[in-house]
Amino acid sequence: MKRISTLVDITYEKDPRVAKFKEEDRKEKEQLKEQRRIEKLQREKERRNREAEEIRQMELQWKARQQEEIMVRMNILVARKIIEQLLEFSGVQH
Predict the structure, then answer these.
(1) For 13-70, how does the pLDDT look when each residue is reduced to its tens digit (9 = 90+)?
(2) How confident is the model at residue 8 (pLDDT cuts 50, 70, 90)?
(3) Quick one: three-class SS letters along 31-70?
(4) CA 79: distance to chain centroid?
(5) DSSP code for 21
(6) Which candidate among 13, 36, 64, 93 keeps its CA 20 to 30 Å from the CA of 30?
(7) In angstroms, rounded to a whole number, what is the distance separating the alpha carbons of residues 86 and 82?
(8) How many CA atoms lie within 13 A of 74 on its CB side?
(9) Residues 63-89, buried b or exposed e (16+ Cβ, 10 A)?
(10) In the chain, where the domains are located
């Protein structure tokens, strides 16, 4: 029985069809692995792009708020100046 098993093993190892099948299987696994790697890189790139866009949007919102605050402060200063001039014109001391 051992001898038959050994002969089968040797035949199996020497059969070019088996070697070809193993090679094709190995290549298929490598291609699948490479495809998964590429998909992972693509997902990572998309995630980074989304994060960069979110950061850009947040920066734009922050700048808009800053501009709005500046305009409000300027309006307050102008209003104060106008009130001071009106008070000065009417002769009232503050």
Answers:
(1) 888 888 899 899 999 999 999 999 999 999 999 999 999 999 999 999 999 999 999 9
(2) confident
(3) HHHHHHHHHHHHHHHHHHHHHHHHHHHHHHHHHHHHHHHH
(4) 46
(5) H
(6) 13
(7) 6
(8) 6
(9) eeeeeeeeeeeeeeeeeeeeeeeeeee
(10) 2-90
In this prediction, residue 93 has a pLDDT band, given cuts at 50, 70 and 90, of low
Residue whose entry in the numeric block shows the structure tokens 């980074």: 48
Cβ–Cβ under 8 Å, residues 59 and 52:
no
Whether residue 42 contacts residue 36, with contact meaning beta carbons closer than 8 Å, is answered with no
Q: What is the DSSP letter of 91?
A: T
Residue type, 15: D
Q: Give the whole-angstrom CA distance, residue 88 versus residue 82.
A: 10
CA 41 to chain centre: 11
| Contact (CB, 8 A) for 2 and 10 | no
